Amino acid sequence: MFCRMSLAASAALSLALVSPLVGAQSLAPTSTLAAPTQSSECPIDLLHGVRCVAERAAPAVVSIRVTQQASAASNSQAMPFSLPFDLGPAGPQVSQGSGVLIRADGYIVTNAHVVDNADELIVETSDGNEHAARIVGVDKKSDVAVVKISSKEPASFLKLADSESVRPGDFVVAMGSPFGLDHSISFGVVSAVGRGGMGIVDYEDFIQTDAAINPGNSGGALVNARGELVGINTAILSRSGSSAGIGFAVPSNVVRDIAEQIIEGGKVARGYLGVGIQDLSDDLRAGLGVVASKGALISSVEAHSPAAKAGLTRGDVVLAVDGRRIDSSRQLRLHISRKAPGSSVSLGIEREGKRLDIKVALGNLDVASATAPSKEGQAATENAAPLGIELADASVPSSRGQSSRGFVGGAEIVAVAPGSQASILGLRPGDVIVAIGKTSTPSAKLARKLLAARSKTAPLILTVLRDGHTQYLAIKPHAN
User: Fold this and answer.
1) Quick one: 214 and 65 in the same domain?
2) Which of 14, 19, 113, 184 is catalytic?
């Protein structure tokens, strides 16, 4: 179970803020977040090293006390993973989390799930003073939020490191207020980088650590040996709701990008390419004749999108973005999302065995999405058609409001036999087969014919239209 690490109800929550590497008196407010700078590392031995990092970071660690009405507090649980506590009876709910000061003028980063829907925020700094805070902006898709306090004196803050340089085995210290215990620290190593696909937030590129992270640590600091912020502690994988040595932090480079946009404009804008993408499996490689071993396979292209205007087509495989290698569809999505709308990117692609470079001017991602309801159908028998599916002629766009994506007609799946090859592949009633191999299938009759005559030695590629987007499915040659 993934748990968000804020603490509520009777247990006090706190927000941890991180201090600068130099005295607060010498710091002045800046219009943008401070760029990471080189500074001396603390001693490597545990006795002095952990103490050194903790002393550098502690002045910027604060507690955030969050007050919500019961209805708002209940809504905060509607997230990809559960909160490790009961919100208690009706009435105002008080919880706490952790966070990090990143500028001398009082800007603090924390998790979106810590402060979202808050009616009141109180920040307690390391000197024991309490400050009323306001929410500057929240980005639920990355689980990053920015809040601000006002103070007569420049605040101590923590500099953000370049998280691209973080590697497994790096020494790190986690700071926050687990179970309401202010300014607690734990230490460990970076267990892995680039963790994603776990369903915690929409955009996942987590740093994994074995440093203890517990309820109340949400929004707190993950700090390197230089006392620089490398991540914001966000979630744990645990059966008990407490640390099991598997914690996840949003990398500092993502935090920097999100925070700068929120501070400057109050919201986050993400680049938009306008393609459907999927990972490149061995079966898809064989069936499509792709040379590259890794990449992001384009399964559909939105009409009039930046991708369409640049000449990208279905079947292209994206291998690089601005010279940086792309191994998966998730990596491509992350890279594009961090580009500014209107910016230009260079995509290295493979098309029909040839390497091409294509420039694309990105649009602005439309965050509104509508999912068409799935179509119910009776179960098919395994003998009804190849793969265990029943097919009927479909008009594309169909009654389900799907875009044609350049196809006219198709073979709509009206039933899937339980336990059949189609069921194992994930096909379902309402899906429309618009092509088999390189041949369009404007009718159910043609689709049945092509499926029955499929090769016994090479994978067969289906192009399937679902909810307005096409994707490729590879059928193994030995499949029934």
Assistant:
1) yes
2) 113
Q: Which of 411, 399, 396 is nearest to 375 (CA)?
A: 399
What's the pLDDT tens digit per position in 225-275?
989 999 999 988 877 777 888 999 999 999 999 999 999 988 899 999 999
149 in the same domain as 250: yes
Per the annotation, the verdict on 14 as an active-site residue is no
Phi, psi of 342 (to 5 degrees): 95, -15
Query: Smallest Cα–Cα separation from 148: which of 105, 95, 116, 97?
Result: 105
Q: How far apart are CA 422 and CA 425, in angstroms?
A: 5
In a domain? residue 177:
yes
What is the mean pLDDT of the segment spanning 387-393? 84
Residue 113 annotated in active site: yes
Say whether 467 is catalytic.
no
Q: Are residues 55 and 181 in the same domain?
A: yes
Specify the number of domains making up the chain.
3
Residue 420 · residue 382 · CB < 8 Å: yes
| Structural domain boundaries enclosing 235 | 2-264
Options 191, 218, 404, 440, the catalytic residue: 218
Whether residue 458 lies inside any domain: the answer is yes
Question: SS3 for 115?
Answer: helix
120-129 per-position pLDDT tens digit: 999 988 888 8
| Residue 42: predicted pLDDT | 67
pLDDT at residue 27 above 60? no
